[in-house]
Automatic annotation (TrEMBL):
Main location: nucleus
InterPro entries on file: Centromere_Mis12
BP GO terms, sorted: cell division; kinetochore assembly; mitotic sister chromatid segregation
Species classification: Eukaryota, Fungi, Dikarya, Basidiomycota, Agaricomycotina
One Gene Ontology cellular component annotation held by this UniProt entry: nucleus
Protein name (database record): Centromere protein
Family stated for the protein in its record: Belongs to the mis12 family.
Length: 307
């Protein structure tokens, strides 16, 4: 016995036929099962009507009620058994018959020999006999297209990222604009209408040289004669502190008290060297301005405590 000829794989049949053969066979079998079920229901309705007529005939013949009920119960029992047997037998024959039908259809109707020349719908008009050079060229074109698609996707990602960054920067700029919106107030807009005389005055004032801080401090000291010397400025405080030190040295020399009393001659010689400003400048040169300021602050504090 020779083996059956090879057939086209079943996975290609839906592509060639345009539908799935198994689904078509399933629909046919379902229709047959529905017809068998309707036949069973029709037979059951017919037998129920027949039994009902038999019960009515028995009642009309003058039988008692118990006999009629017993006859009806027996008829219902026989009807159920008969319907179940009929349904089982019919479904069994339908299943066997359509199982053979399904197997026969798949082997004969929906079986295409492998040596049969068939052109698929999507291959219609296509020349499948291409030279090797042409095939290599087509593969190169496919690679180029894939590379272009990859580049387009990358560019799309970059555009999306740039759009998000631009949106973030726009939000930040809008917030800054809201914070600077006070510059649009009508009061500030009035400054734009200033005459040229104000601009010339501003230019002249801006060109003036800067003031000397020492002169400013001296002017402040003169302008405020009611204040005590150490309250005018830092320079006034230093001058006052040095003068207090020199005054204490003088008192020590004259009275002969304290440490200056034991060396009154040396103190007198030191006092005759220079004035208070000279001593202050010498101290700043040797110990620094910070040390002189600290010494003056301490002496001034002691003097103020004694006054």
């Amino acid at each position: 016995m020779s083996a059956p000829p090879p057939n086209v794989p079943s996975v290609l049949l839906p592509e060639l036929l345009g539908f799935v053969p198994q689904l078509l066979l399933d629909d046919i079998i379902n229709i047959a099962n529905d017809a068998a079920r309707e036949a069973v229901e029709g037979m059951q309705e017919f037998l129920e009507r027949r039994d009902a007529e038999r019960v009515k005939e028995a009642e009309a013949a003058g039988k008692d009620r118990d006999a009629a009920d017993r006859l009806e119960a027996e008829s219902m029992e026989e009807l159920e058994k008969g319907i179940n047997s009929f349904q089982t037998l019919l479904e069994s024959h339908v299943d066997i018959a359509f199982d053979f039908f399904e197997a026969w259809s798949l082997r004969n109707i929906f079986a295409i020999p492998a040596d049969l020349q068939i052109v698929a719908p999507h291959h219609k008009g296509t020349n499948l006999e291409q030279p090797t050079e042409k095939e290599a060229e087509l593969l190169a074109d496919i690679r180029d297209l894939r590379r272009k698609i990859h580049a387009q996707k990358k560019l799309q990602r970059l555009y999306t990222r740039a759009a998000r960054m631009s949106s973030t920067q726009l939000t930040h700029s809008q917030k800054r604009l809201e914070r600077l919106s006070f510059l649009r107030a009508p009061q500030l807009q009035a400054l734009l209408s200033l005459s040229d005389e104000f601009h010339a005055m501003y230019t002249s004032v801006a060109g003036l040289p800067s003031l000397d801080p020492s002169l400013t401090a001296a002017e402040q000291a003169i302008a405020e004669p009611g204040k005590r010397p150490w309250e005018t400025s830092k320079t006034g405080y230093l001058n006052w502190a040095v003068e207090q030190l020199m005054a204490r040295a003088k008192r020590s020399v004259k009275g002969g008290e304290g440490e200056f009393g034991r060396g009154s001659a040396a103190a007198a010689d030191a006092y005759g060297v220079g004035s208070a400003d000279d001593v202050k400048e010498a101290l700043e040169t040797v110990a620094g301005a910070g040390a002189v300021a600290e010494l003056g602050r301490r002496e001034g504090q002691d003097e103020m405590d004694t006054q």
